[in-house]
Write a structure and sequence with these properties.
alpha+beta; five-stranded mixed β-sheet; 2 domains; about 30% helix
Amino acid sequence: MKSELIHNWNIFNKKSESDVYNIITAICKEKYENNPELFDQPVGIQELYEQEYLAQHSLLTTNSWDDFVEALKTKNRFHTHYVNLKLLERFCSYIRKPYKSGEMFYRCRISTEEGIPIEEMGAPPIEKTTEGRANARGIRCLYLGDAAETTIYEARAGAYDYVTVGKFKLKEDIIVVDLKRINQISPFIEGLDCLEYATNKEHLNKINDEMGKIMRRSDSALDYIPTQYITDFVKSIIIPNEDVKGYAGIEYKSVMHSDGYNLALFNPDLCECIGTQVYRIDMIDYRKHPII
């Protein structure tokens, strides 16, 4: 149980397994005295092996991420029955993140020494829009970062390239879905079904991994389809009892800069570029590890 609480529930911050064990046995002193094997022996979730329960409470109807991805790529791209959309919408509601008007974000583009004009730093026009992590070809989306450094990493500029970094100001209050927290939902949120959440932890980890998956130039555009599907669904959700009608975008961890994050805005007009800075890339730190 101590391992499960540390690695899957994010309740204890920087505690060792022995510390967590002492805490939970002290809090549950009576339970520990009467049923110590619950704390000392391997534990699991019985419902993970009950098909009737999974049929109603699993985020993926076949309980398989690979089946979901394969169906999107080769069977039905827009109306799959492989995902429980009501459940996905509920999980999204637990990871809402508001931003106030005036918040600053950044966008980087490889350029010349002269840089790129402010008016050209936004999302490309429809006819030049290509597939991205959060958008299909022809659908505009403004990709931003939390800091200039994050966007420079994401641009993957080469040594001695010039890049232009634009500073973008949010023009109104918005709410986004923070997908980098989808597998870190607090069990103390009011209304959260902890059993349902625990049952779907593996699927939520897959979504988090997919959003942070490194895409290489040689990869197929089909590899973006799972995240595009999730993003399009988030875009369709209506938020009840809020001043805003729906989610303005998704937030996800940076692939190239572990300390940063990215924001994909569905409506590029929500931000305006208020300034630019040109940089020259002087050095790239290549790191490697053997895979065979």
